[in-house]
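Ex. 9. Protein: 2-hydroxyacyl-CoA dehydratase.
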Amino acid sequence: MKKIGLTTTVPVEVLIAAGYTPVDLNNLFITSTDYAKYIDIAERDGFPKSLCAWIKGIYGACIENDIKEIVGVMEGDCSNTKVLIEVLKLKGIKVYPFSFPHSHKKEDIENEIRKFMTIFNVTYEEVEKVRKRLNETRKLSKEIDELTYVHNKASGFENHLYQVSLSDFNGDINLFEKDLKNAIEDIKKREPLNKKLRLGYIGVPPMTGDIYEFVENLNSHFVYNEVQREFAFPRAEKASDIFEQYYDYTYPYDNEFRVKELKKQIKERELDGIIHYTQAFCHRAVEDIVLKSELDIPILNIEGDKLNTLDARTKLRLEAFLDMLLDLKEIKK
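Predicted C-alpha cells for 2-hydroxyacyl-CoA dehydratase:
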C-alpha cells in the first residue's frame, strides 16, 4: 500500500478504502529519537525561527521520510497549513486538500467528505465498510480511557499515546489492534494509582511528553486528554454514517461546540483542574481567553516550543498550580 502523509486527523476511512496507508506526520515527527533534525531541515529550507515547531517538524518529517503525497487540511486546523502545503508543492509533493467547514453544518461536512471520496475514487459503501472495521479498534481505546478515569489504572501518558495513535492506527490496523488488546490486559492487572488530584489535559498534544510523569510525581493523575480522545472518535459507534461521525468531532470546529463536550467531561471525570497546553506562535493560544471564561474550573495555561521536555520555569508553574489545587481540595473537605 502507498503511504500518504496527514497534517492532522482526516477521514482516513476514505484513504484506506483507496488503498493507502495513512501516516500522521505529527506522530512521525514527535516520536523520532532525533525529532530536532526535522525542525532543522525546515529552518535550513527557509522556515523562520518564529514559526510553530509542529509545522516545521511536519515539513521535515515529510521531506526526510520521502513522503510523496499528503492530505493538507485547509480549514479547521492550523492557520499555517496553507503556506506549508505551498512549499511542499514546490518540493514536488502531491497535495490533496480537505476542509472541516467552519459552518459546522452537516450538509457542508457531507459535501466535503463526498468531494474527498471523489478525489480518491471510492464509493460510500467502500468507505462505510472500512469505517465499521476501524470503529472496532476505536472501541478498544475507550477501554483504555475507562481504565484511566474510572479504574485509575492506566497512566495519563498511556491514555495519551494509545488515543493519539488512532489518527493513523500506527500504519497497521491489525497490529495496532493487537497492541491495544495486550495493553488492556496488562493494565487491568495493576493496582490503582490513587493520586489525590484528577487533572484534565486540553489543547493540542504536547511536545513535552514528560508532563505526564512529572504530574504523577506530584500526587496528580491526568484522567482526561481532550484532543487525543477526539482523535479516537469516542462517539463513533453512535454515528449513523461517516458524515455524522466527522460532524460530531470537536477539534476542528468552533469553541462553543468544544466547550459543551469539555463541560460534560469535567463533570463526568470529576476533574480538580485543567492544564491547557498551547504551542508557541500558534493562533490556538488565544483560545485560552475563551476557555477560562466558559469553564468553571481552575486552568493553567502552559506553552511549549522546540523542547520535548519541560523547562524549569514550566515545572515551577505546574508545581505551584498543583499545590494550589491540593489546598483547595483540602478546604472543600
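Check your answer against this statement. The domain at 2-119 is CATH 3.40.50.11890 (Rossmann fold).
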